[in-house]
Amino acid sequence: MLYLLLTLHLLGVVVWVGGMFFAHMALRPAAAEVLEPPQRLPLMKRTLDGFFPWVWVAIALILASGYGILLGILGAGAGIYVHVMHTFALIMVGVFSFIYFLPYRRMGRALQGGDLPEAGAQLAKIRRLIGVNLLLGLVTTIVGAAKPF
């Protein structure tokens, strides 16, 4: 059971953190270099439209498997590193929820209304917050792999 939970946990992490890394470090800079805002903003919105449902699936996998490991297997024997990962994961879920329910939706409304400056401002907020979550995700991955505490 432990290996199944760990596999599900890692799959969720790969999808979420890997997707953020790709979007933040490769897609966004390439789109900014090649496309003007009237083309770039709809591309980024459509990309997020496809990615964000997978993030919700990843969150469900990560939390369900993480709690399964913590409560069902490790219990009181969980190291501090597990609690650090748990805390970072909850912060990441909060940041993603904020992105999803505020700037992402505002960006969509602005695009529908033809307000490119507002859509761009919301995308800039999304970019910064995804950068925060990417950093937290990478640190959490290091903590999980290194078990430093």
Automatic annotation (TrEMBL):
InterPro entries: Cu-R_CopD_dom (IPR008457). One of its GO terms (cellular component) is membrane. The chain crosses the membrane at residues 6-27, 48-74, 80-102, 129-146. It comes from Sedimenticola thiotaurini. Signal peptide: none annotated. Residues 46-146 form the Copper resistance protein D domain. This is Membrane protein. Keywords: Membrane, Transmembrane, Transmembrane helix. It comes from the Bacteria.
